[in-house]
Amino acid sequence: MSFALVDYFEPWWIQIIKGIVLFAIGLQIVPLVLLAERKLLGRFQGRYGPNRVGPYGLIQPLADIVKLLGKEQSRPETSVGPLFIVAPVISIMTAVGTFAIIPFGDAPHIFGTRVGLYGVDVSIGPLYIFALSAISFYGLMLGGWASGSKYSFLGAMRAAAQLISYEVSQGLALVGVLITAGTLSLTQIVHAQEGMWYIVPQLAGFLIFMVAAFAETNRAPFDLAEADAELVGGYNTEYGGGRFASYYFAEYLNVVVVSGVATTLFLGGWLIPGWHGQPAWTDPFVVLFKMTLFISFFIWIRATLPRLRYDQLMSFGWKILLPLATLNTLATAIIVVAVHK
Amino acid sequence: MTYLIFFIAAIGTLAGAIGVIALKDPFYCVLALVVHLISLAVLFMLLRAEFVAAAQVVVYAGAVMVLYIFVVSYIGGQNLSGSAGPGRAGTLAAFACAGALVAELFIAVLGTGLKAVGTGGAHVAAGFGNPESIGTLFLTKFLAPFEIASYLLLLAAVGAVTLARRRGGLDDGIEQRAPRISVAEFMSARPYYTGTQHETLGRPESLPEPTQR
Fold first, then answer.
1. What pTM does this model have?
2. How far apart are CA A293 and CA A329, in angstroms?
3. Are B1 and B66 members of one domain?
4. Is residue B196 part of a domain?
């Protein structure tokens, strides 16, 4: 009996190295995103942003992390102990787990050994992402519920409703890509985009996916879960210190992961159009560059759009986005069948 | 490694199932059910049914249990022991049903003569249980049950919407009363003294008359 699901062609020690390298990359990206967000937000709002710690404020995220980890981990008296502690762990676990399947490149030979530049290439691809995002719901929900605070509870309820509402549209938006590519494996989907990136034939799907991604990651303009003007801080109101850092880290890692998924599914992953014989070492850099575009887009939107009202969010998700996603799926299926006949 | 994962998942499955019926607080019961379902998904994974495993997590843990959690966390936490027990006849019937189920399972399992124990398990072809093969089965061999099941779900959804509409909901018409702001309103001229301090503090007489923006 063995795992037949995943195509393991590497020896065990390479898998361990890969795990460490991927985790290290993920850990390094998140502070950079934090810094980029604060810097860019500053510029968008006509101020400097952090510029005191280190040259150009570059060490600011490091200082933030040290500050957060050095704080006392307080816990309200009304909280439910074990769940209060487990909830941030669930959040961060699912975020890191999803990061594992983003392909940073194909499987080139490095020093004679074939190494896939990704954690795993699961055959169920996007379904894996949705399964983990389903579990990440419990991170938010348990955190909000176990805090024993009204603000946390309301934030968790909003986050949960938002998550399951927009997950449907996001899934349907991806179905169009999957129909066009004819596979669920993320590396195969990238290979299927060698002629043309899917952002062109699947433009509607891409737009729906991006809107839903903003809601899924609880980012502005859909950040009602932590609407600081009305809910103090949402589901993580009562958290402090390292646990708050975990939630914060998971949120930004989710942004990175969604950017990676969008890059893979719509922007052709590591491909550069019109460059055949692209050397394998460029692949991760191309993917990281494209991810940076998406991350900057996330920050840009946060600086630009005001927060929606809750009923607007729900009616937009169910009455506009979901029918559009369904239409997109139907149209794609019909076109694919008609072309392949 | 496989055995280790199997035993962890099996313990999770059993502990979750027992927790559902043994725990007092309904919120923890639901959480135990979630643990049970996720452990089951891991077991499906070990049986190479990757699609079923993913669907299990997405549909049950990600959608059905979410609704349970919603309901329980809104109304839970109160003392729910006010409801009467099933009574003597109910308890007897429950034990009878459980006994019948146990007998049936024993007949089914022992009826095979336990021949499968000790072998490496059934032989599965490559690609067994992956999304392609399941999709093919859905659209060829099991097309009619698949379609009937989807119609059933559609009917359930439509029925739920119809029922919710007829009752009128808790706050009938609140959506109509909510202010709707269009882009045109943002662009058009604002009435005098709105959105300023004048609204709350009154208008001091000494200020000059405002001009139309």
1. 0.79
2. 26
3. yes
4. no
